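One such shown below:
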Amino acid sequence: MSDSNGLLLASLAIAPLAILGIVLLRSRPNWREGVSVLASIALFAVNIGIYHSLQQGATLSWRSGEILPGLRLELAVEPLGALFALIASFLWLVTVVYAVGYMRGHGEQNQTRFYAFFALSIGCVMGVAFSGNLLTLFLFYEMLSLSTWPLVVHAGNDKARHGGRVYLGVLLGTSIVFFLPAIILTWWSTGSLSFVPGGLFPENTDPRLLSALLVLFVFGVGKAAMMPFHRWLPAAMVAPTPVSALLHAVAVVKAGVFSLVKIGVYVFGLDQLAAVDSREWLLYLAGFTLLAASIVAMQKDNLKARLAYSTVSQLAYVTLGVLLAVPDGVTGSGLHIAMHAFGKITLFFCAGAILVASHKTEVSQLRGLGRQMPFTMAAFLLASLSIAGLPPTGGTWSKWFLMLGTLDTGALVLTAALVVSSLLNIVYLTLIPVRAFWRFDGADEAAAPTEVREAPLACCLAIGVTTAICVALFLFPQPLYELVAQIPLGGG
């Protein structure tokens, strides 16, 4: 086994080893959380090594023995997976640091279980990122659903259990009804489940089969939250804020849209995808989703619910980008996976900090809070700008390429949808910190609390890091762009 392939296997082994340490040290919280931090640092270092090996032209892959004739588990590194793994492993580190402050500051129970399943979830994400065929992707995709369910129901109350039922019901239901049949039909029609640059299907494949398969894959990957299979995401907001950050930025939803991009590029290929009949109405469904979810978000007073529907909208951007079936669209999708990850995790970190420090959960309660929590609300403003796609934040570039993709295809209605959605982002996100800093009038000003009380230091440290990266990705997007540009599109 080469050293590079050893790194690939190590990326999957670190999380199980971390779980062992977390459980063994459950009675010593500082050591237990230290294991999580060290494991996340080790995983990020391994993924940096994988990235460098990829840049040097190394081929990193692994194959199991046959499970059934012709069916194997396969791992392989390609640019999109390397990007996803780097983002997830780095944000694991940041989220663990944040969680130390949040879980202790909020007095959460069952913290050992939380850190153990958090590590397991990241291990599953590595399997998704480095999957070499549809069978491996499906296996780790389902393991991710199951490993995050205990985190969703962490509180253990009736509301949490109901949210967990919706979460697991939608995700497993879409997988069984749509995703698994799509994989079986792909195997039946091609005799292979491998990811192939340029696509897996031969040119003479029945167009009706391809059209049906695209529908099955888009709805089957329920973690992408395409309407009407999006309800699991708002339902999961009953979880602690670090879990919400995991769901929205690090693992679950990103595994969904990552899977759709990978299927579009490596199963269909852009040339063949562009000719699929069902692609056009799915494109407009993505456009409807990003607008409708934005409108719903505007009406939500609960801060986490508003952020949840914002995520539904932003995921549709990624889905739309790959369905455009042009290089600019795929570039925009790849970049948006990264840009949204850092913007949205910052917003959830801020929401958790607000809860810990001020016990406020509703948007209507936040007016004037900028005086008490200026650091948190300033970070919320910058992250909101990134989600809206405005300078000086990284979201500017992903939305730039998505816009170019719609113009490349002449889909001006979708161009308009992206513009309107971005304007709605400004209304339902950016106005929150603006109002938090807004000057009070008369008696309100006299009564307004002025004592600064930020969240615990660990929370603020994590918020500072992710906010700084939102800005850095605007100033220095080139490394990220160059990695996304290496995705083999096979034409288009």
